[in-house]
Design brief:
Distance between the termini of chain A: 24 Å
Number of helices of chain A: 5
Shape of chain A: globular
CATH class of chain A: Mainly Alpha
Strand content of chain A: under 5%
CATH topology of chain A: 434 Repressor (Amino-terminal Domain)
Oligomer: homodimer
DNA sequence: ACTTAATGTCAAATATATATTACTTAAAGT
DNA sequence: ACTTTAAGTAATATATATTTGACATTAAGT
């Protein structure tokens, strides 16, 4: 796995800190950090919660590196 | 969580048995069964592998019950 | 230079996804 | 009725996601 820059970007767009996002979705800051870092294999439920919190979809953040095109 | 009928349907469309799908994605038949049954919270990597094998996307199988509309 | 907030990272503990083995049921074919 | 294949389900074991606690680093503000 590689870094999840899309997630980092979406979070930035929502102006949330890793800690804020973590609290919103009910996990630890370390977990969010690890997911963004990319060496994690999170649970689908967590992915969904993250997406909903960031107002994006699963495909936006976790589907294959169709390297870049979110509409912003 | 509720039954993942979309996955069951996509698998049917690909004419694969639970066991075949399981082998293709490298897990156990019980795991596939449990996911379709709905009382499981699989890993994103597994979800992605399943989607690729069934030629659909994450949103198709695991994004919210926008209850029904895949093009078939 | 000093703070502070955000992030990166690590080791050990806990929760939970998945494997293994095995038994049951449903449907279809003969 | 019998056989076979696919599916449903359960108990215990193992692998791994996530937590907890703690410390290091980076960037920005003053």
């Amino acid at each position: 796995m590689s870094k999840n820059l899309k997630m980092k970007s979406a979070r930035a767009l929502s102006d949330m800190t890793q800690d804020e996002l973590a609290k919103r979705v009910g996990v630890t800051r370390q977990t969010i950090n690890a997911i963004e870092k990319g060496d994690y294999n999170p649970t689908i439920k967590l992915c969904i919660d993250i997406c909903k919190t960031l107002n994006v979809t699963l495909n936006d953040l976790f589907w294959e590196d169709d390297t870049n095109e979110q509409p912003l």
